[in-house]
Amino acid sequence: MTPTRNSGAQSARGFTLLELLVVMALLGVAMLVAMGAVEPLVRAVRERGWVDRLQAELVRTRNFSRASGTVAMVSFLPEEGAIRFARGSQTSQLALPSGFRLETEASDEGRVWTLLFFPDGSASDVDIIFTGGAGSSTRLKVAGVSGRIEVSPLEPPG
Description:
Low-confidence stretches: none
Number of strands: 8
Strand content: 25-35%
Strand order of the largest sheet: 3-2-1-5
Order of helices and strands: HEEEEEEEE
Distance between the termini: 83 Å
CATH class: Alpha Beta
Oligomer: single chain
Helix content: 25-40%
Radius of gyration: 28 Å
Number of helices: 1
Structural class: alpha+beta
Mean pLDDT: 84
CATH topology: minor pseudopilin epsh fold
CATH architecture: 3-Layer(bab) Sandwich
């Protein structure tokens, strides 16, 4: 007597619809949790990229002043949410990301701060704090005598 193919227990042919739906629901929940955890990281990376771009524009403006022998001006405009760079006859503007605020040690709300770069490499003193939407703060400090540009993250209080 030859044994039949389906003798004993039936062989498994795949997953049931219910098993597939449970696995898909678990994957959906895992994706939602992961997206919630990643969003603040993405915002922080974008803010850091903006700060790096600001530093590059400031260095470019300082270098223009030294190379051209003229004064270059940077205006911080908190009401407009922008920073304006005047290099000779060229003017460019860098918009603040949404949620960014400009502050100084002396709270001069609504005031326009101006930074001048001189041909000898010096600059006017500036100390401004940028507070981002992710809660991070960055200090921009320009030393007058040397014209050195320092951009450094501030530790959150607490």
